[in-house]
Amino acid sequence: MNSNQQQDEFKITGASEMAQIWQRDFLASIVVFLVALPLCMGIAIASGAPASAGLIAGVIGGLVVGACSGCPLQVSGPAAGLTTVMFDAIQRHGLEQLGLMVMIAGIIQLIGGWFCIGQWFRAVSPAVIRGMLGGIGILIFASQFHVMLDGAPQGSGLKDLVTIPEALRKVVHMPHLSSRDLRHDTRVVLQDLGELHRRQVNLNERVLAHVPHHRDRSPTVQPVLLEEFVTEQTAIRTGAEQVLSRALDLFQGQQGKQRRITESGQRTIDQLRMSVEDLQQHRWTFVLPAQAEAAESLAGMQQVFKNHDLAAAIGLLAILILCTWRRVARGPLKVIPAPLAAVTFATLAAASWQLPILYVEVPNSMWEEIHLPHLSSFMNVEWQGILVTSVTIAILASAQTLLTATAVDQMHHGERTNYDKELFAQGVGNCLCGLVGALPLAAVIVRSTANLEAGAKTRLSTMLHGLWMLLIVVLLGGWLRMIPTSALAAILVYTGYKLVDWKSVKHFWDYGSGEVVVYLVTLVMVVCVDLLVGVVAGFLCALILLAYRFSRLRVWMEAVDIAGQYVVRLEGAATFLKLPRLAAVLEQLPAGSKVELNILKLHYIDQACLESLRCWAGQYQASGGDVLANWNLLESWALRGAGTNKGERHAEVDMADGVSPEKNSTSPLPIINH
């Protein structure tokens, strides 16, 4: 075969292999997209943000981060591990500051990647990481349990936990089904109220971009823009009045229900009317509080029509499918991920029964939810709180990303992770997310595992999953309004449960009770205080445990069968802090005996202990005794601990004499008579 034929055959073979790789990446991208779609929406809702904020973040995580990632097979997107931080941040600073917080976090990651500190995020105790994830899992489980019942989180992790029994009391009876027509009409009312609530929140963000919390001066708002605000606020008020009228007609004859509808509806309409008047009369001091109260009033109006028992039934159905899908799916159905199957069946059940429960609030066009930053958004900002939150987001997102990258590397034999490049890519993605007001990004193990198990070979699968997400956002955004909120919350409840890996307690116990203490301290502090305090507390516990282990010294004396011979065993680290314990054991040795210093399990000795042993050995031999010890090896350890080159020269001498420091823990050392 000539060279031209060989070259042609090589091209054909290479093209065939490339086609196979692309085919695998294409199929894997569809699987990852199907896994990511419900998770992006569920995590956004759990974070207190619109579902569109999670979908847009998923698009950026696939198309942008996937293209420049340092871990090609890793998938980035909204992360369940950040939900508690984001929910608290949005509650404290408002949804309008979401973009600013995420953008600053992205800038911090860019700086970290540029200065090559990606490797440092790996220097975290596994017990701290597991404890953090376990605490996050409990918080997610507790908060989303209320959402699964069409309720609302109570504001803190402990409150969410202790109020679960109260929430269950609302649903411990068989769901009551009214007539199909009434269920359908009530469902339409709930969806219309949800759309009005979404529009009000969106308007609040747009107004805040031009009318921040001014006190001493009036902002400059273009007349055309102001007229647009007034028109939208008036339209929302008109829509609320129409919904109220329809709702009263639905429940004619039910006086108690009508009274609650009238009270809630009238309060909402009055609040919306005040918002319109404040905008028209340029009462800037009252505009933003009035609009925030209007959004709360619309959410409160939804409460009148909620059916907690029906929402619980849909959530239970979703969890049942999540738990059993892998065992019951047959044939082509096995390709469908469990979260997507759960959402699909829950959506079909809610639609076929026309259940009057809460549904996802998304616009017909996702572009309505993109909010570019405005100069006035940076005025009168509580910078201290914003910066603390941004640093927290950057640290947690980076730690989760780089630890996930380590796990992904262990699952395949392809290209290894460039940690600094990955950190920089995450920073680019989060800067873009902040620019458009989306949730922060992090690498996620569930989607990354799905990508690998589906046969992905290159970063193309990650990028294509972002493309499919973009097509859904652009073309089919309105269809997502059919998804029950309780179904997405159920996925997060299940995710939170899985994050609390109690088997890890047994795993850590195998390495000592100290690791279990670090795990439990981190978990409890995350749940009871907050995420940052929990991680810091766990890290400090790990440092204390490390200091204890490296300063611990066990010294004990054993009598040998031969009369007059003793062995003194040293285990751990011999430092000046342990001199009293060492001296107490040595003083118990009878005079005139033969003593062997066994240092097989000694891993460090400082100068103070070495000199003390030498002094004792000299005095003991002067009184008629005999001491056997490897003094050259002990001195080499002491010199190495001091950072001198003499320790290396002593070690070389020991090696020449047949004494190997590296084998100190596995084989006996020759005893050198002093």
Uncertain segments: 8-12, 646-674
User: What is the first-to-last residue Cα distance?
Assistant: 76 Å
Mean pLDDT: 80
Strand residues, percent = 5-15%
Helix content: 55-70%
Backbone CA Rg: 33 Å
- How can the largest sheet be summarized? 4 strands, mixed
Question: How would you describe the overall organization of this protein?
Answer:
By secondary structure, the protein is mainly α. Among the domains are: 181 residues, Four Helix Bundle (Hemerythrin (Met), subunit A); 112 residues, STAS domain (Transcription Regulator spoIIAA, 2-Layer Sandwich), CATH 3.30.750.24. It contains 25 helices and six strands. It has a four-stranded mixed β-sheet with strand order 3-4-5-6. A two-stranded antiparallel sheet has the order 1-2. α5 packs antiparallel against α21. The longest helix has 44 residues. The protein starts with a helix and ends in an 18-residue tail after the last helix.
Write a brief structural summary.
This protein is mainly alpha-helical and 674 residues long.
Please specify the SSE layout and strand pairing.
Elements: H1 3-46, H2 51-68, E1 76-77, H3 83-93, H4 98-114, H5 126-148, H6 157-162, H7 164-169, H8 180-210, H9 223-250, H10 255-280, H11 284-303, H12 308-328, H13 338-353, H14 383-409, H15 419-436, E2 442-443, H16 445-453, H17 460-475, H18 485-499, H19 503-509, H20 513-528, H21 531-551, E3 553-559, E4 565-574, H22 579-586, E5 594-605, H23 607-622, E6 626-628, H24 631-641, H25 646-656
Parallel strand pairs: 4-5, 5-6
Antiparallel strand pairs: 1-2, 3-4
